[in-house]
Design brief:
The protein has one domain. It is built from three helices and three strands, in the order E-H-H-E-E-H. The chain has helices at about 15-25, 30-35, 100-115, and strands at about 1-15, 40-65, 65-90. It has a three-stranded antiparallel sheet with strand order 1-3-2. A hairpin with a 3-residue loop joins strand 2 and strand 3. It is elongated and about 90 Å long. The model has no long low-confidence stretch (mean pLDDT about 85).
Length: about 120
């Protein structure tokens, strides 16, 4: 099992500030899994969060060009998250091949007959 720190950059977008941050933090696991594809993640623990960019985009919505005018906002946030990651390296685990008893017996019979498989 390996434990180390890693910096991960994630971003999220939503109708509120909380939604944007929540969507960004939700992407941490997926980003770590892409960064270490041959390992199994045991624990991801956020250590520090730094806001790189936080923007709000406002626009006016109208129904049939001039009815029911309202102002809406979309929030976008980019975060740099320092995480403690615990990984289990699956590639380094020595697996032993065990064959089914039926397959072993079938191979013995085939080898006795003279065929190879």
């Amino acid at each position: 099992m390996n434990m180390f720190r890693s910096n991960i950059r994630v971003e999220g977008k939503g109708d509120s500030k909380q939604t944007a941050i929540n969507k960004a933090l939700y992407k941490i696991q997926k980003t770590v899994m892409k960064k270490f594809p041959d390992s199994m993640i045991l624990r991801i623990e956020p250590f520090d969060v730094t806001v790189i960019q936080a923007t709000e985009k406002q626009f006016t919505e109208r129904f049939l060009l001039f009815f029911f005018r309202r102002t809406r906002s979309i929030f976008h946030v980019v975060l740099e998250v320092e995480v403690n990651v615990s990984l289990l390296e699956v590639g380094k685990i020595p697996f032993v091949l065990k064959m089914d008893e039926q397959k072993k017996n079938l191979k013995k019979i085939v080898n006795k007959i003279g065929g190879e498989q």
